[in-house]
Fold S-acyl fatty acid synthase thioesterase, medium chain.
Amino acid sequence: MEKVMNCFKKRPDAVSRLICFPWAGGGSVHYARWGNILNSSIEVLAVKLPGRESRAKEPFFQNMQQIVDEVISVLLPVLKEKPFALFGHSFGAFTSFAVADALKRLHNIEPVHIFLSGASAPYSEIRIKAPKRSDLSDEDFLTWLTSNGGTPPELLAKPEVLKLFLPALKADLHVVENYRCSKPDKPFLSCPVTCFDGKDDVPHDLHAWKEMTSGDFSVRMFDGSHFYLKDSDNEKLLLDSITRHLETSDMDYL
């Protein structure tokens, strides 16, 4: 469990759990610290992928199925204990979707809420037509990252540090670019889905995510670009929103 999940604040008496998936090239610490911020009713588990942090010596995953298989094998016993929600930003939105899909199909388990941020649905036209970037040279890849705002600002300020992150960034982007799924014929979930995004980010087809659920669907936009959620004011608003949704979901679940 500790190998795959980072939990800063264990809360065995928490009413629900929030499972967070990293953005491309990202680690688990940003989300794990949410466990110190959210109230005691929510326990936060942040996914740690191979090739970074304490798993730096492990090879990167090559496809989405590997991520789904590992996360579910570790989390399944935990997810049966109490209500849980999923949160994913950018690359993490895709992994959240893939995990939710597999949990429902294979185990008939679904979250009480899914929070998806900074990404088009994987079956949307915008996503399908997006050009592949993971095979670019490092120089061209960095140019593209700089131009589209899809890199944490603190990394762009330190090019020598950014180069250390390039392998993980490219590996995750390779997973996303080769992940294919069809638009659902009918919703496979019944839980609410909430989408977040930065107003100045590149346009995303957020409303396409509605196809996955028969439950409530909402969109909330924040000031800022792709990494709007790293702004402290936005983070507070985001976590307040997640908390409100989860407290309502917990009541419905009970």
Observations:
- The mean pLDDT is 92.
- The domain at 5-249 is CATH 3.40.50.1820 (Rossmann fold).
- The first strand starts at residue 5 and ends at 6.
- DSSP finds nine helices and seven strands in the chain.
